[in-house]
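Sample intake sheet
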Amino acid sequence: MMENNLKKTVLYENHIRLGAKMIDYSGFCMPLQYTSSLIEHMAVRNTSGVFDVSHMGKFILNGKNSMDLVQYLTTNDLSKIKIGQAQYSCFTNNHGGIIDDLVIYKISEKKLLLIVNAVNIEKNKKWISHHIKKNAYNIEFIDSSQDYSLLAVQGPLSLVYIQKLTNIPLKMIPFYNFEIGEFSGIQNVLISCTGYTGSKGVEIYIPNEYAEKIWNDILEIEKNKIIPCGIASRNSLRLEMGYRLYGQDISEEITPIEAGLSWIIKFEKEFLSREILQKQKKKGEHKKFISFVVEEKGKIPRQGYSLIDKDDNIIGNVTSGIFSPVLKKGIGLGYLWNQTPKTGSIFLSIRKKKIPIKIVKSPFINIKNN
């Protein structure tokens, strides 16, 4: 009954045939796993896996004011990238909070492709439409979320395997660049060197009518070498890289400065909430995003767990946590509400027990993708 009330990608029946366990994810019926999350996780780290991430929002902005609009609504500087490149950025609200994080593809000086989180599609549409109307911009705004599918092929051997399906030299595409060409016999396919796992790979944007063909071709090109992967392994893979997840690690109540995303804020340009973020950065009195490991065996941090000091005072919270399949220990992301304690350690509170944690820099693991 659950599945009847949820949106489905065009590959839904394929996931069922492959024996996937389906769950509600951002209002979509998505595969949690096909075999096990551990097998799928390690396939992406060691060989290759393919994800159906067609639930992601896909917006097209086309017109002479497209760049002006996106420059104003996002924190990063779109003028710094060329046609054929992509950029990670975020929308902020009037108070500096993160409306959404997104990837922007510069198709031309007038045409942009925006990839947004599925849970925020409607919110983002209203936000963008409001500002187009407010500024009387000459922009064609198309929501292509339900018209295009998105497949992510990730892993150190992924490009070797799928190279057989295209004449585009995949290894020659730099990180956060893209090419448009033929893939698996289909013309005008956008292939980008991006992903949410940290491992080498590409994301492939295709009209829905060709999604099943390309999905099957990817799985068949190297039989049993590229395996289908679900949401569970996608989550553990992104966590090993310290990548934020909207709705857990970032939200409209958290600014990009608090979220440790100052590197995507370019104060030399004008953008919405610029002054608010400048003041916050200058003042320096804000909660701090942290990455941490749990050295004690068998202890795994979970969303909502408290972070405490030596005197049992709650000083922060965990937003994401897992057992890392690569490190073989618990890792987590979270926030310290005040500055890091000057003396003593920080602890994870699990069932009233104090478990020591060690703050580290993300990513948690080093990946060699050469």
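Comment: The chain has three domains: 2-53+146-240, 57-132, 287-360. The longest strand covers residues 314-324.
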